[in-house]
Design brief:
heterodimer, A: 306 residues, alpha/beta, 2-enoyl-CoA Hydratase, Chain A, domain 1, 11 helices, globular, B: 105 residues, alpha+beta, 33% strand
Chain lengths: 306, 105
C-alpha cells in the first residue's frame, strides 16, 4: 500500500504529506504489510450517529515493515481525518500493535499526528489512551523501543501528547508541536492574556519542535523531510534502551530540575537565554543546521531519563 | 449521510495485478477512494457515502464519465466523501486507478 502522490520522496514535506505517504517514504521500499487494512472496513461505530463520514482505516494505519533492514512494527496517524484524533477503532489498532510488540519484542515506530481524543467518541477515546499507555509501557518493559515521530499538521496534543511522553525517543521537526492542552484549549480555559491562540509565533516557540528539543522534550531535531526522519529513526533504533525504575527516577529528577531552573521565565525566549544560548531571539529563524549548532552544549537532554 | 451505489458496464478493463489501492483522506473538501479488483473485467461498481446530501445527479455524471474514460473494468470502488468538488472526485478516481494499475514495488 502506498499513496498516489507523484511527488518524489526527497521533495515531500512531512508536514504536508498524508500518513500513507509518510509511511511509504520512511520504511524500506516494498516492506510494509498493513494489518487491518482499509479493505476490512473496520470503521468507527460512533461517527455515523453524528452523521459524519467514516474513513476505512479510521485514521490509523498499523503494520509491519523494515527500516534499514531491521524489522519493526509501525503506526501512522492521518492528521487530516478528524484531526488525527483517537477514537475506539483508531486507538484499538495502536493498542494491538503495542501488545504485539511486547510479545515479539520488536521495536515500534509511531508517526503521531493528532489533536487528542475524538469528541464524538470521547469515552472510548480516553479509554484507548489509557490502554495504549499501558501497552506501550508493557512493550518497553521487555526491551522494545517505541520511537515517536512528530511533524504533522495536527501536532501531537491531548492524550497523544501523554503517549508521546512515554516513548523511548521522540524525533521532531520544527512543525512538530507537542503538548497536552493545545493553544485553543488554554485560551478558552485561562483567557487570552494567558495564551493567545491566534499568535502563531507564540505557538511555535512555546510548543514547537525547536523548543521541545532545547528543553529535552524531544531527543532529535530534523528537517521537514521523510529522509531526515528516516535517518533519525535509524539512529534512534540503534540506541537501544530499557524502561525501569531508574529511568523513572531520573525523569522525575530531570523534570524537577527543569521546573526549578526555568520557573521564573515567562516566555520560551527567556528559557533559551537561561540555557545560555547567546542570541536567543534568533532561534525561530535559524535553519536546521544552524539551530543544531546553536543548541549544542546548551540544550537539556533526557538521554538518561527515557 | 447519503449513500449511493452504481454498477456500470466498463469498456476498458483495469491493468496491473495489485489487488487493491487507496488514495485521499476524509477531510473537508476531500474524499478517500478505495479500489479493489473484485469484479468481472467488464463491470465497475461504485459505492458512495457522502456527508453532503442532494448531489446524486452530479455523482452519477462524474462516475459515468470516469468509467467511460478510464480503465476501471473489474474494479469495486468505495468512496467516503466529505464534501469534495466534482473535479477533486475525478482527480482521486484517476489517482486510484493509476495506483492499482501500477507495477508492484
Amino acid at each position: 500500500m502506498t499513496a498516489a502522490g507523484r511527488i518524489p520522496a526527497e521533495r515531500l514535506s512531512w508536514y504536508e504529506a498524508t500518513a500513507r505517504q509518510r509511511l511509504g517514504a520512511l520504511v524500506d521500499p516494498g516492506t510494509f504489510v498493513e494489518i487491518i487494512g482499509p479493505e476490512e472496513r473496520e470503521t468507527s461505530p460512533h461517527l455515523g450517529i453524528f452523521d459524519l463520514p467514516a474513513q476505512f482505516d479510521d485514521g490509523m494505519i498499523v503494520g509491519r515493515a523494515a527500516i534499514g533492514g531491521r524489522a519493526i512494527l509501525i503506526a501512522a496517524q492521518e492528521g487530516r481525518f478528524m484531526g488525527g484524533a483517537f477514537g475506539e477503532v483508531h486507538g484499538a489498532k495502536l493498542t494491538g500493535l503495542l501488545r504485539a510488540a511486547r510479545m515479539s519484542r520488536r521495536d515500534v515506530v509511531v508517526l503521531f499526528d493528532t489533536g487528542g481524543v475524538r469528541l464524538q467518541e470521547a469515552n472510548a477515546g480516553e479509554l484507548a489512551i489509557a490502554e495504549i499507555i499501558r501497552a506501550l509501557v508493557g512493550a518497553r518493559s521487555v526491551g522494545a523501543q517505541v520511537i515517536g515521530l512528530i511533524g504533522g499538521r495536527a501536532g501531537c496534543y491531548g492524550g497523544g501528547g501523554v503517549i508521546a511522553g512515554c516513548c523511548s525517543t521522540l524525533i521532531a521537526s520544527e512543525h512538530g508541536r507537542i503538548g497536552v492542552s493545545g493553544p485553543d484549549v488554554i485560551e478558552t480555559n485561562m483567557g487570552v492574556e494567558e495564551f493567545d491562540a491566534r499568535d502563531r509565533a507564540l505557538i511555535w516557540r512555546t510548543m514547537g519542535g525547536k523548543h521541545r528539543y532545547l528543553i529535552g522534550g524531544a531527543d532529535l531535531f530534523v528537517d521537514d523531510r521523510p529522509a531526515a526522519f528516516r535517518e533519525a529513526t535509524l539512529a534512534a533504533l540503534g540506541r537501544g534502551g530499557s524502561l525501569g525504575l531508574d529511568t523513572l527516577v531520573a525523569e522525575q529528577a530531570r523534570l524537577e530540575r527543569r521546573l526549578a531552573r526555568f520557573s521564573d521565565e515567562t516566555d520560551a525566549i527567556e528559557v533559551w537565554a537561561a540555557l545560555g544560548i547567546g542570541n536567543a531571539e534568533a532561534i525561530p529563524e535559524l535553519a536546521t543546521r544552524e539551530f543544531l549548532l546553536a543548541a549544542a552544549g546548551h540544550r537539556e537532554s533526557a538521554d538518561e531519563a527515557r | 449521510m447519503e449513500r449511493m451505489a452504481y454498477r456500470l458496464t466498463a469498456p476498458h478493463p483495469a491493468g496491473g495485478t495489485r489487488r487493491q489501492a487507496i488514495v485521499g483522506v476524509v477531510a473537508s473538501g476531500n474524499l478517500e477512494v478505495l479500489v479493489e479488483r473484485a469484479l468481472p473485467p467488464d463491470v465497475c461498481s461504485v459505492e458512495v457515502a457522502t456527508s453532503v446530501r442532494g448531489f446524486g445527479p452530479v455523482w452519477e455524471a462524474v462516475v459515468a464519465d470516469f468509467v467511460a474514460r478510464r480503465a476501471a473494468g473489474g474494479l469495486r470502488i468505495a468512496i467516503n466523501d466529505s464534501g469534495a468538488r466534482p473535479d477533486t472526485v475525478t482527480l482521486r478516481l484517476a489517482q486510484a486507478v493509476r495506483l492499482i494499475c501500477a507495477e508492484e514495488p
